[in-house]
Amino acid sequence: MHLANENSTPRSIAIVGAGQAGLLLGCALLDKGYAVTMVTNRTAEDVWNGKVMSSQFIFDPALQIERDFGLDQWEADCPRTEGISFSIPTPDGSGNKAIHWHARLDAYGQSVDQRVKMPGWMKEFVRRGGDLRFEDVGVPGLENLAAAHELVLLAGGKGEIVNLLGRDDSRSPVRQPMRQLALSYVTGMKRHDYYECVNFNLIPGVGEYFVFPALTTAGAQGTQACDIMVFEGVPGGPMDCWADVKSPEQHLETSLNVLKTFVPWEYERSRDCQLTDPNGILAGRITPTVRNAVLTLPSGRKVFGMGDAVLVNDPITGQGSNNATKGAKHYHDAILARGAAPFDEAWMRQTFDALYTGYAEKVVSWTNSLLFPPPEYIVKLLGSAQQVPAIASRIANGFNDPRDFANYWFDPAAADRLIESEMQKLAA
Ligand SMILES: Cc1cc2nc3c(=O)[nH]c(=O)nc-3n(C[C@H](O)[C@H](O)[C@H](O)COP(=O)(O)OP(=O)(O)OC[C@H]3O[C@@H](n4cnc5c(N)ncnc54)[C@H](O)[C@@H]3O)c2cc1C
Predict the structure, then answer these.
(1) Last residue of a domain, one of 352, 369, 386
(2) Index of the ligand 1 atom closest to the CA of residue 181
(3) What is the number of structural domains in the chain?
(4) Is the pTM for the entire model greater than 0.85?
């Protein structure tokens, strides 16, 4: 491996933003002998004591990357989610399910609250020899980092600074937020009578509700199991109801009202839930955006974007942290493969384009497709999964690697072929 530059010192890399993407890459590069500086705008205490930021569910292929990088320290404590369940209520408002199925994932997934994970990884970053600094980085800060390092990565998530990268219109067909989002972290939820699932409920015209187990904070240092409720309300519809919520108590009350009205089977097991803590709530909107991967600073130096800074999806398919993780691994491999050669603009563009065309593009199209009312053939496909376990399993395991959806999701004829062939196998 070529680790040293022409001066025979370790290659120096700066990362702005200590989130899922930046910390994974930073810790992994330290292990390989790189000199890594991480600059972020919130301390570990700020993050631990702050509001929840995500529901951060991670499927097995991304969990495996965390394991491979030695960053899986909560795996034993975090509840395991073994499958995906899917429901659509009947349109008559009777509270019955028109479609319901569940299918096992090939391997379990997990959600560790970023308030737990990021402070833990910051500690690990420093333990591995990283230089962790706290600063709200702007253009002057980027210039300083670029003057002193061979490569600067911008992993600022949804921070204002990432807008400097500029939107790539050709890759960002959705131009406004398509859902009003809300999160409630709760304890006291009753379990259902099958394996733990990401329980996905699609309420046509209203939005989506999904809920799954997770590990969150408990007091100043501890952790506890919880469940995360995720609400995705169609703007202007009855689940877009968070604007007047003024307190955590109201937030929980609103959450339970939504469940009672639209998914009573979820309400039944949630009615006694309590918030994990007053910060276990969030409401907001996201515009799905692909940004340009390279920023040219006034000095002419280049900065390379990663994670949500370049690829932000609506959380409807739970892929953002998964993308950030797979992207960090892709960048890690490209940095190692670069040896002692310069991290120039051409290399940056080639590295991002390989990630985008080889993987992320498919995730973006599938995620965006779910933001629009499902066409008839998709409703048929989702309904057929109730009769045909192999179809349910295929859809569920698509969450591990959404590239598989390209084989049948976007084409009515391909979806029909899938249904027919699996039905024939079942009948044989
Ligand atoms: C409601 C919701 C639910 C979600 N649920 C899921 C899910 O279930 N599964 C999933 O895979 N994904 C989910 N996501 C997406 C996921 O949280 C993100 O994709 C992921 O956190 C992106 O990682 P990142 O490292 O790019 O950014 P982040 O994790 O956001 O980290 C960015 C870091 O940059 C820092 N920063 C920002 N600006 C600056 C600055 N100017 N200077 C210095 N530091 C800065 C921030 O403090 C932060 O530390 C969800 C998102 C939302 C909003």
Answers:
(1) 369
(2) 1
(3) 3
(4) yes
Structural domain includes residue 75 = no
| Any ligand 1 atom below 6 A from CB of 119 | no
253 with 307, same domain?
A: no
Q: Which atom of ligand 1 is nearest to the CA of 42?
A: 47
Domain presence at residue 261: yes
β-strands 197-203, 180-187: how paired?
Answer: unpaired
Residue 308 alpha carbon to ligand 1 centre in Å: 6
Domain containing 216 equals 81-111+178-285
346-379 residues labelled b (16+ CB within 10 A) or e (exposed)? ebbeebbeebbeebbbbbbbbbbbbbeeeeebbb
Question: 225-275: per-residue pLDDT in tens?
Answer: 999 999 999 999 999 999 999 999 999 999 999 999 999 999 999 999 999
Q: Is the pLDDT of residue 390 over 90?
A: yes
Q: For position 43, what pLDDT does the model report?
A: 98
Mutate to test the pocket of ligand 1, among 42, 54, 312 (most ligand atoms within 8 A of CB): 54
* Residue 202, H or E segment: strand 197-203
| Residue 404: per-residue pLDDT | 98
Among 234, 267, 285, which residue terminates a domain?
Answer: 285
Nearest ligand 1 atom to the CA of 111 is 8
CA of 20 to the centre of ligand 1 (A): 7
Same domain? 299 vs 214: no
Instruction: Enumerate the β-bridge partners of residue 180.
Output: 233, 285
**Does 401 map to a domain?**
yes
In this predicted model, what pLDDT tens digit does every residue of 338-359 receive, in sequence order? 999 999 999 999 999 999 999 9
Terminal CA-CA length for the chain: 53
Res. 178: pLDDT tops 80: yes
Return the CATH number at 123.
3.50.50.60
Q: Whose CA is nearest to atom 50 of ligand 1?
A: 54
Neighbours of 157 (CB within 10 A): 22
Question: Residues 96-117, buried b or exposed e (16+ Cβ, 10 A)?
Answer: ebebebbbbbeebbbbbbbbbb
Tell me what the mean pLDDT of segment 413-425 comes to: 97
Q: In testing the pocket of ligand 1, which one of 227, 291, 321, 366 has its CB within 8 Å of the most ligand atoms?
A: 321
In a domain, residue 391? The reply is: yes
